[in-house]
Amino acid sequence: MSGLTLTVGGRVIPLLPLNYKQLKAQKENIRLMTVGGFEDAFHIFDTLAPVIHASLQRTVPDLQLEDVEEALDQPTAVVLANEVIRLSFPQAQPGETTDG
Questions:
Q1: Of 16, 21, 47, which Cα lies nearest the Cα of 34?
Q2: How confident is the model at residue 25 (pLDDT cuts 50, 70, 90)?
Q3: Distance between CA atoms of residues 77 and 81, nearest Å
Q4: Does an H or E element contain 13, and which?
Q5: 87 and 1 Cβ atoms separated by less than 8 Å
Q6: Would you tell me which of 23, 56, 71, 81 could form a disulfide with 8, CB atoms 3.0–4.6 Å apart?
Q7: φ, ψ dihedrals at 32, nearest 5°
Q8: Cβ distance 80 to 44 under 8 Å?
């Protein structure tokens, strides 16, 4: 896995790959992250925070989006959201498989 975490309310929560249901729910946010089309800096944050929240909910199912938003700053959000995408869509190197 990643090793990246976010501390929310004093609790250190690891990033995990999104499951299929979460990927479907975050489809538009993921599209914006990979293709672009943000209206402004606030739109970027409003796109990244739910993706990070979904990843953290794999460990803490009752975690609220508002708590994640409070724990994030924009530079950290960019790093964490990119890591969620990397975890959820692993790329195999030539001669390797992605089945871990």
A1: 47
A2: very high
A3: 6
A4: strand 11-14
A5: yes
A6: 71
A7: -60, -40
A8: no
